[in-house]
Structures are given as structure tokens and as C-alpha cells.
Design brief:
Helix 1 (52-67) runs antiparallel to helix 12 (341-349), helix 4 (160-166) packs across helix 5 and helix 14 (390-404) packs antiparallel against helix 15. Strands 5, 6, 7, 8, 9, 11 and 12 form a 7-stranded mixed β-sheet that branches. Strands 2-1-3-10-4 form a 5-stranded mixed β-sheet. The chain has helices spanning 52-67, 83-93, 122-125, 160-166, 175-187, 209-217, 224-230, 238-252, 266-271, 285-292, 328-337, 341-349, 364-374, 390-404, 410-422, and strands at 40-46, 71-77, 99-103, 147-148, 150-159, 191-193, 275-281, 296-299, 310-314, 317-321, 353-354, 379-381. The chain is 35% helix and 14% strand. It is of the alpha/beta class. The chain folds into 2 domains: 29-151 and 315-372, 3-Layer(aba) Sandwich (D-Maltodextrin-Binding Protein, domain 2), CATH 3.40.190.10; 153-312 and 377-385, D-Maltodextrin-Binding Protein, domain 2 (3-Layer(aba) Sandwich), CATH 3.40.190.10. It contains 15 helices and 12 strands. It holds the Pfam family SBP_bac_1. InterPro entries: Bact_solute-bd_prot1 (IPR050490), SBP (IPR006059).
Length: 437
């Protein structure tokens, strides 16, 4: 998921503990003997609230306790908007949780997190997709820092009945097609695309990196994300300014609600049938299918002059073991359990796409999204805020929404982002990605 804040580093604690098992699954049975029967309580922090992911994590802990009655969990739901600030303070004093929800990728501070290589059996790690994104320089040989939960898409969703009523006969695939669809939808009484900070409430403004990811993908460069990280492509380059000018035109052409910067019930507008489209993610798919059944579909945000060639698909979050935990072995048993078929079924039941390689999803819209990459020929990309510097992300959280809202010209806004990038240490903006220490 999504939405990240950089946290300060703490001193590393040397660990040399064996991996352990947590399930009868054959992939982890070899380490079952290392599990202690002594009572232990694992504290797990998250900022998921009552989302589908929150439901899945709760069910996951309950299933693990059913297998290991000596292990109980203290689940602590922290506020979404300052979760990492709270985690930072707790990590500095070593009074925080044993396990913590963590976002992928460059937002990981290695000094906080136990490397899972050696703590979790190799055969269990091999079952999980995308772990390379949680390793230094995105090289799995360096060992992952997060046990990822589910495969996530950052995606557009649309109300098929609204499209039919407005005479929009196909999903738009380019900027011009999107503008045209917006005109028809608005004439039919719909808010074409609704923006606001609802759904995943991560701050006062809507979270802009879903859109920015597709703006970068839409410029058709397979190295576009890394180029923004290294500076090979500057934020205020002519091509970026031109792309963000087309993004700003969404509001001036009537595609969006007028209260972009203040709206908090945008999810209600979509679920209530007032809005025809929303940019969101797989953590809300079940809400959409529960409400609309087969009348809701997924589409790739068409933020490009030509049809999109890529889609944002990655496991954007997971559970990490905090290095200072006094219950490392028990915590490792739990994250090992996350690699099992039983855990995979729990995520599917919650309406999510399991991250275990070869697992399936029963939700029809989730299946539709998987088809974009599995059979549709689209390239899977991470989310942009997962692979650029945290200082740029923090600045963009404020600057990019103001572009769409018409409060600042794209050229001036992107110049500000470049200035933030220029202040970053030279070794954190090279051709090699560097996880924060």
C-alpha cells in the first residue's frame, strides 16, 4: 500500500537466530522443532483500521494461535497518518512492537528490521513473490526485510451502469479518450472521477502517488522510475511538465469534483453511484464487488497520449520483525506461517490477492486485474513512491494534489520537487537504489 514516511535509524542489533515453523504446511515443517511451547505474547502494530487488509491480519493471527495456543497476539491499531512517526519513537526507545506492518520499499530502515534470511526457511521464502523489492538494491540475495502479505494493484475502478447510461461504450485508454468520457458522464449527472482522502485516509489530502505512478508509466520508459530516482530524468523536465499539464486538465475539463483538496467522503460518492470512477487499490475491491456485483470493473488509468503499456502491480506491504524484539523466534514462526497455503486462503477470503506464488483469487475484479499482466501483455511496475526518495515523497504529498486542484502551475510545482531532490545526499540518488540505513 501505499503512503510512506521516512523514519530515523537506530543502532542495529546483531542477530543469529535459527528459523522456525508455524504451520503443518510441508514448506515449513522442517523447522517445526525450533518452536518453543513456552507462553509468549507478540505485539503487532498496524495502521490498517477495518480495511480488508486489517481483517486479513486479524484472521491470520487467530489462525496462528489456533495452531500454536501458547502464542497470543496483542494487535494495536495505530492512526494511519502518523503511524511511522509513532513507530520511530517506539523503535528509538526499544519499547515498540515485536512485529509491525511495514510498507515496501525505500521506506525501510534496515537498522530497525530483522533480515528474514536465516530466520525464515529458504523454502518458505521461495514461495513468496516480490521479496526482492524489500532487499537492499532490490536484490533478493541480500535478504528480505518484510514478509509481504498480498499482491496489490493501484488501479482505476468504474461503474459499468454509469458508463452505459452516459453512452461511454469503452473504457478510455488515453488522455483524450478520458476527457471525452468525462464530458459524457458529467452531462449524465455523474462526477466522472472523484478525489478525496477517504478510503485510505493517510493525511489531509488525497494520496497522489497512484496517479503519479501512471503518469510516469505513461511516458513509456521502462527506466522512468529509476531515472527520477537518479536524476537522469529531472522532475521539471519538459516531458514531465507536459504530462502534469494534462493531469491538471482533468479538473479544468470537468473530470473531477471541485473540492479535491477537502473531500473526505469520496468513497461514499463512488459506492453510492454519484461518481463513475475512482482511483484506488485492491484493498477496497471487496467493497466494490459487494456493492455492485458484476457492474463494477477495473481499468488502467489512461494517463498517456497512447494506450498504456504498464500497470502498477506489486506487494506493497507486509509484516516485519523489529530487531529489538525479545521474541524473535516466535515472531519468525508467525511470518513463516504467512508463506503457507492456509495463510493464502485467509487473504483470499478477505477479498485480497494472496502473495504466495501460484495462489489464486476468487474475487472477479481481482482476477480481471491479474489478467492485465498475466494475459494482457502489460508490464508490472512498482508504485512510484516505493522507489523514489522519501523526502521527495513527503514533498509530493502536498505539491502534487495542488497541481490537480489548480492551486499551482505544473512547471512551478515540479521545480519545487526538483529542488527537494537536489538537497538529497549524493549517494542516495545514484543508478543503484539504496535502502535507508
Amino acid at each position: 500500500m501505499k503512503k510512506k514516511f521516512i523514519v530515523a535509524s537506530v543502532l542495529a542489533v546483531a542477530l543469529a537466530l535459527a528459523g522456525c515453523s508455524s504451520s503443518s504446511d510441508k514448506t515449513s515443517a522442517s523447522s517445526e522443532s525450533t518452536v518453543s511451547d513456552a507462553p509468549v505474547t507478540l505485539t503487532l502494530w498496524h495502521n490498517l483500521g477495518d480495511t480488508q487488509n486489517g481483517v486479513a491480519v486479524k484472521a491470520l493471527t487467530e489462525a496462528y494461535t489456533a495452531l500454536h495456543p501458547n502464542v497470543t497476539f496483542n494487535l494495536v491499531s495505530q492512526p494511519a497518518d502518523n503511524y511511522f512517526a509513532l513507530l520511530q519513537a517506539a523503535a528509538v526507545s526499544k519499547t515498540g512492537p515485536d512485529l509491525a506492518l511495514m510498507w515496501c520499499c525505500l521506506f525501510i530502515h534496515k537498522s530497525y528490521l530483522a533480515n528474514l534470511k536465516g530466520l525464515v526457511p529458504d523454502e518458505a521464502l521461495a514461495r513468496m513473490g516480490g521479496l526482492e523489492w524489500t532487499a537492499d538494491n532490490f536484490d533478493i540475495a541480500n535478504g528480505p526485510n518484510i514478509m509481504l502479505t498480498d499482491r496489490q494493484f493501484y488501479m482505476g475502478f468504474y461503474n459499468k451502469e454509469a458508463f452505459t447510461k452516459a453512452g461511454v461504450t469503452s473504457v478510455p485508454k488515453t488522455w483524450d479518450e478520458l476527457y471525452a468520457a468525462c464530458g459524457k458522464l458529467k452531462s449524465s449527472g455523474y462526477t466522472p472521477m472523484v478525489y478525496g482522502n477517504g478510503g485510505q485516509s493517510l493525511g489531509a489530502l488525497y494520496y497522489p502517488w497512484y496517479d503519479s505512478s501512471y503518469i510516469t508509466i505513461g511516458q513509456a520508459s521502462s527506466t522512468g522510475f529509476r531515472d527520477l530516482y537518479s536524476g537522469k530524468d529531472q522532475w521539471d523536465s519538459p516531458s514531465n511538465v507536459a504530462a502534469y499539464e494534462k493531469y491538471a486538465a482533468l479538473k479544468t475539463k470537468g473530470c473531477t469534483n471541485s473540492d479535491i483538496l477537502t473531500k473526505t467522503n469520496n468513497m461514499d460518492d463512488f459506492l453510492g453511484g454519484k461518481a463513475a470512477m475512482i482511483i484506488d487499490g485492491t484493498w477496497d475491491t471487496q467493497k466494490f464487488t459487494d456493492k455492485f456485483g458484476d457492474k463494477v470493473g477495473a481499468f488502467v488509468p489512461p494517463f498517456s497520449d497512447a494506450p498504456m503499456t504498464g500497470v502498477v502491480q506489486m506487494a506493497g506491504q507486509g509484516i516485519s520483525i523489529m530487531k529489538y524484539s525479545k521474541n524473535i523466534t516466535a515472531a519468525a514462526g508467525f511470518v513463516t506461517f504467512m508463506t503457507t497455503d492456509e495463510a493464502s486462503a485467509i487473504f483470499d477470503k478477505a477479498g485480497l490477492i494472496p502473495n504466495v506464488i501460484g495462489s489464486t483469487t476468487s474475487n472477479p475484479v481481482n482476477k480481471e486485474m491479474l489478467a492485465f499482466t498475466e494475459t494482457g501483455g502489460l508490464t508490472a511496475f512498482p508504485m512510484l513512491d516505493n522507489v523514489i526518495q522519501g523526502d521527495v515523497v513527503d514533498a509530493g504529498n502536498k505539491i502534487i494534489p495542488s497541481i490537480l486542484a489548480g492551486k499551482i502551475k505544473p512547471a512551478a510545482a515540479l521545480k519545487q520537487l526538483r529542488q527537494v531532490w537536489e538537497q538529497i545526499a549524493a549517494d542516495a540518488k545514484t543508478e543503484t537504489y539504496k535502502l535507508p540505513d
